Amino acid sequence: MEESNLRIIVSSLFMILCMFITLSIVAPQAEARAFFVFGDSLVDNGNNNYLATTARADSYPYGIDSANHRASGRFSNGLNIPDLISEKIGSEATLPYLSPELNGEKLLVGANFASAGIGILNDTGIQFINIIRITNQLLYFKEYQQRVSALIGEKQTQDLVNQALVLITLGGNDFVNNYYLVPFSARSREFNLPNYVVFLISEYRKILVNLYELGARRVLVTGTGPLGCVPAELAMHSRNGECGADLQQAVNLFNPQLVQLLNQLNTEIGSHVFISANAFAMHLDFVNDPQAYGFVTSKVACCGQGAYNGIGLCTPASNLCPNRDLFAFWDAFHPSERANRLIVDKFMTGSTQYMNPINLTTIIALDSTT
């Protein structure tokens, strides 16, 4: 009897061991989904390093808290939003599309096409001269697919793109570096603010439809943050630290219409392709109550000069805070890495107040079953 039981136990252990070995062999073959990034400096991870432009973050103290403590072209003291999303979905960080390292197997991870300074409109950021307009980012995406097709075939490339996660961040520069760049700018003479926003949304629609036609099926679209509350705007327009009224008004017109556009597109397509990420609410949480999130300030930038450290660029000559984790803003416009982490946490698990209609964790769970 004891011998019989021993055989059953040994046999069971052997089966469990075989299952474990099988799983350990299969698991590494399950690749993380590809990730593609489009947009401006909030998500650029180094494309502008390869361009003759002033819109770049390739020198100290940018990247001071990164693994190698070197500037990479990210407008951050460390990691930016795409890096942190890659972490969450279990993928290595995407490379800038212009990087010579982006070839072979690296292409299958995805690519970052973003370029600091750009907007929805092609005349946004013209002062930066040589940047990758959104129309060119989409052309690069098409070129990317041709490169991958040569590597793994057309059908597999289509599957890779259809199953990928896509992030697009546009709009802020269309106000800061276009409509409100100078008094009586060309666009402000052409449009009053409400009509300008309607124009922006109509142009954004074309971009998103193009992205869908190029195969994107899961697209996170961020609205603009509270632009009037960034240190640069406080330095120029604030007397007592209050947010700039004009830019806040612009954002409050733009974001709801963007959400409406995404809902319309999803209805037309018949699927939740476009996911709205409420960057305004995500930022405003720690702008309004920085201490609740462990920050000492959401008004003063860590790196800069002048009022609120909001004047000019972050350079080796700038004031630099000793502990970047205590500052919501890294420079005059961009969140610190720690603030970016809080934002990405909302991407992952945020309620419909932040992510509409579903958050990224739900997307991953849904997509894993199809």
Automatic annotation (TrEMBL):
Gene3D superfamilies assigned: SGNH hydrolase (3.40.50.1110)
InterPro entries: GDSL, GDSL_Est/Lipase, SGNH_hydro_sf, SGNH_plant_lipase-like
Highest taxon, organism lineage: Eukaryota
One Gene Ontology term from the biological process aspect of the record: lipid catabolic process
Record-linked Pfam families: Lipase_GDSL
Keyword annotations from UniProtKB, A to Z: Hydrolase, Lipid degradation, Lipid metabolism
GO terms of molecular function: hydrolase activity, acting on ester bonds
Family to which the UniProt record says this protein belongs: Belongs to the 'GDSL' lipolytic enzyme family.
PANTHER family: GDSL ESTERASE_LIPASE LTL1, GDSL LIPASE/ACYLHYDROLASE FAMILY PROTEIN (AFU_ORTHOLOGUE AFUA_4G14700)
Listed name of the protein: Putative triacylglycerol lipase
